[in-house]
């Protein structure tokens, strides 16, 4: 009797095994086409791209300073390999961007994401077709960027979609956030990124004493994070004091930082709108920077790189409404920290954003 039970159990295992093997060879889902571009809480995908792409010898790799690229993954979903030769059609998608902008910001157009792909723009280019051969489940769409003279006070995005047509022989993924991509583009250089703002104070100037020295409030305002945006290889800008990208008038308050040196040296602060906002640098101190790095003790392949800007000291006027002005004194230090995986050769992939 025991032998009969054993034979029955073996037979059942063989049947189950055959069933499982059948499942492995048969498609369980669909071969939908999608982008690999996960959306964040703001409805976009943050993409970090070097301001200039370099080769292994340090030379410009994409035709010169300010030229770069990003490779966006295009996927064929399913539990089995793609068995067809496909030509994927990719198009600019201003309609989805328009819906997103209005849903998030309504009529506050100064806060809208700016379309990098609209007609007449020179900042982004890509092929509108992408071949995927049988046996391939992923291809990379090469997007080329020309960041020269770009104004990063605009919130640049590139909206894309996978185009469907019965004659194309494929179907885009039915989930719209898979078949569409809204790429928020952040070019970066050695000095751009999110600085810790806890060492930079903002105090309100309430008046002046009989010697003309400013009288300031004892309380100060600090921000946890201050973003430095790319201008070019050696320059970034931040918004003055309390201002950030969620201010509709942010373009008036760009403070440019020029790094005079490689690893250390003086920093020049400049504002194109100085007269309008009352921008004034304290000439008694000289801002400076230094770059340092150390390797992680637990993960020896991980480099911690720091950019520290000292002796920041300037004044500016913020005008919340017409006819009203608040003068601020901004003073202190900014610190940028990057973690870089030295095992990864591609710079944008090596940085742990």
End-to-end distance, in Å?
A: 65 Å
SSE pattern: HEEEEHEEEEEEHEEEEEEEEHEEEEH
If you average the pLDDT, what whole number results? 91
Determine the number of helices (DSSP H or I, runs of at least 4 residues).
5
Q: Could you describe the 3D structure shown?
A:
This protein has helices spanning 2-25, 94-105, 176-179, 274-277, 347-350, and strands at 32-35, 45-50, 67-76, 86-92, 113-115, 124-126, 129-132, 138-146, 155-162, 171-172, 180-188, 193-196, 200-208, 214-216, 225-232, 235-239, 254-259, 264-270, 280-281, 288-295, 302-318, 326-341. With 353 residues, the chain is mainly β. The chain folds into two domains: 32-188, Immunoglobulin-like; 193-350, Beta Barrel (Lipocalin), CATH 2.40.128.
């Amino acid at each position: 009797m025991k032998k009969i039970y054993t034979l029955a159990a073996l037979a059942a295992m063989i049947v189950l095994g055959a069933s499982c093997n059948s499942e492995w060879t048969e498609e369980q889902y669909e071969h939908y086409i999608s982008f690999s571009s996960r959306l964040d809480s703001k409805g976009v995908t943050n993409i970090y791209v070097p301001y200039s792409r370099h080769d292994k010898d340090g030379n410009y790799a994409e035709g010169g300073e300010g030229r770069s690229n990003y490779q966006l993954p295009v996927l064929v979903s399913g539990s089995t390999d793609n068995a067809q030769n496909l030509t994927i059609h990719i198009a600019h998608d201003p309609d989805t961007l328009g819906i997103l902008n209005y849903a998030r910001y309504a009529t506050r157009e100064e806060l809208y994401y700016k379309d990098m792909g609209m007609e007449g723009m020179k900042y982004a280019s890509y092929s509108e077709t992408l071949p995927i051969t049988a046996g391939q489940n992923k291809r990379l769409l090469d997007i080329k960027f020309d960041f020269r003279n770009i104004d990063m006070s605009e919130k640049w995005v590139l909206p894309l979609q996978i185009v469907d047509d019965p004659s194309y022989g494929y179907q885009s993924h039915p989930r719209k956030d898979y078949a569409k991509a809204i790429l928020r583009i952040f070019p970066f250089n050695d000095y751009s990124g999110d600085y810790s703002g806890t060492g930079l104070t903002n105090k309100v100037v309430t008046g002046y004493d009989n010697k003309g020295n400013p009288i300031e409030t004892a309380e100060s305002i600090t921000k946890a994070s201050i973003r430095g945006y790319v201008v070019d290889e050696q320059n970034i800008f931040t918004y003055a004091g309390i201002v950030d990208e969620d201010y509709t008038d942010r373009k008036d308050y760009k403070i440019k930082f020029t790094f005079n040196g490689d690893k250390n040296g003086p920093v020049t602060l400049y504002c194109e709108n100085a007269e309008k906002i009352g921008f004034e640098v304290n000439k008694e101190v000289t801002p400076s920077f230094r770059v340092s790095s150390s390797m992680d003790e637990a993960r020896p392949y991980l480099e911690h790189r720091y950019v520290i800007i000292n002796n920041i000291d300037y004044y500016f006027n913020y005008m919340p409404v017409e006819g009203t002005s608040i003068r601020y004194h901004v003073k202190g230090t900014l610190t940028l920290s990057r973690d870089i995986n030295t095992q990864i050769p591609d710079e944008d992939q090596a940085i742990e954003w």
